[in-house]
Structures are given as C-alpha cells and as structure tokens.
Amino acid sequence: MNYLIILAAALLPAIVLWVYVQRQDPQPEPRNWLIRATLYGVGIIFPVALLEMYINTALFGPDGGPATLLGTTVEAFFVAALPEESFKLLALWLVLRKNPYFDEHYDGIVYAVCIGLGFAAIENVSYLFENTDAWLSVAISRALLAVPGHYAFAVMMGYYYSLYHFVDPSPRTAACILLVPVVAHGIYDALALSGMVSPMVGSLSFFVLVYFCSKMHKFARSKMLAQIKRDLDRHSA
User: Fold this and answer.
1) What is the pTM of this model?
2) CA dist., res. 6 & res. 68, Å (int)
3) Distance CA 95, CA 74 (A)
4) What is the pLDDT of residues 32-69, one digit of tens each?
C-alpha cells in the first residue's frame, strides 16, 4: 500500500480550495500570513480532539455513543460543530487581531478559509489512515462533502467577521460570526450521522445532505461575491 498516495488524496481537496480562495482575492494577502493562518488551523485540531472526547464521554459515557436520532443530533451540534467552530474562531481572532494586512472586506474570508482548510486537511488525513482498507471511497466522499463543508463554514465565519469589523459592529452581527457556521456545521453533521442509528433514515438523509450542501455553497459563494464587490467598489470610488 502506497501511503504517499493516501496522504496526497487526503490533502489535495484542501489544497485545491486553498488555492481557489486566494485567486479570488482582488488584493492578495502576503503568503507568510496565509501559511500562518493555515498552521493555526492545523494546530487547533489537537485541543479540539481532546475537548470532543471529553464532551462525548460526558454526554454518552466512556464507551458509549448516541443510540437515537436525538443523540446523533446532540453529538453533531455539541460534540463536533460547537467545539470545532469555536476553536476556528479563536484561531481567526489570533491571526487577525494584530494583522496589518487585514484591511479589505474579503480578507476575513481568506484567513478563515485558510484556518478551516488547515483543520480539514489534518482531519482528512486521520480519516483516511484510519480506513486504509477503504481509503479510496472515504477520500472521494470526503473530497465531495466534508472538506468543502469546512470550506463553506469558514466562508460564513469570515464573512461575518469582516462585516462586523468593517461595516456593522452590532451584537447581531457579532453573534452571527459563530452562530451561522455552528448551525450549518451542526445540520451537516446531523444529516451525516443519522445513518448510525437508522440505515433507512441515513439513506434518505444523504439526499437531503446533498441538497443542503448545494444550498450552503450557493450561500457561501454569494457572501464571497458580496465582499469582493465591496472591495472593488471602495477602490473605484
């Protein structure tokens, strides 16, 4: 078995999206700051994993797991979505609080996506190496859904972070910075995890998940375009 091929398959989706979001930037960010943000995303996966283990044990016991659809939904929101998105927001704040290049509306999205994809890349590596017997099917499914999911969650977080910083410093916008990606992430995971309890429900949920991902990515794309337009309008004024 060629582990380099598995590693490449795990990293490639994140790399492609990482390059894509940079190329949309009308005023590209310095590469060293982008790499720093990506490494922050890599680094938070370790405390996130420990926190998720602790929360999972507190909710379901040391050797337990969800046994109902309510349980998988609780796991989706409180074991996965809330800890992961909270640490991504912490990383984003650490990257941007003294960043002299955070001066464009689109920048929040760029840095948030770097963090999200750094996290997603390492998560993807762990999933593929835990499933080496079926790594190809896992790689394809995660390349089409999971990694783009983290990308979309990051676009949402970065959009509201910049909106709060540059346009609307209201409590509502501040709440959206974390709330919107957590809700999107929680819905995504709730649909994805439903098959653990009921294969029939899981099969139906898969089609709902694909539809949800389509709508989520359209929403994320609209937010990217909105911030790019703000920057272009400002420079042309």
Assistant:
1) 0.96
2) 33
3) 30
4) 999 999 999 999 999 999 999 999 999 999 887 898 99
